[in-house]
Amino acid sequence: MSLDSKIRYARKPITSSCLLVMKGQSIVMEVKNISASGILLEYDEKHEVKLVLNDFCVLEIILNEEFNLHVEAEVSRISDEGVALRFIKIPEEKQIPLWELLGEHVDKIEK
Q: What's the predicted TM-score (pTM) here?
């Protein structure tokens, strides 16, 4: 799945957890919202895992008992709101379930 970084897809608020793995370290974070191109996670800079822009991460997002999403992502923003990650690679077999999760949000673009 090729994702255009200039397009900002509508975000869907969800309550979920995410395992973020980076440089051999891991941390469990809470998901604030998700879109077709990325995810926003709660992030406290006091965490032992220090994130910086453009860090490569692997995410295991636990969405429900039947669907976990394993993606490669890159840190695109760190703010008081949280840490935003842009999806780099979504496995082909997970694309349709992600679109189904996003529902009406999948095709909407924010201005």
A: 0.82
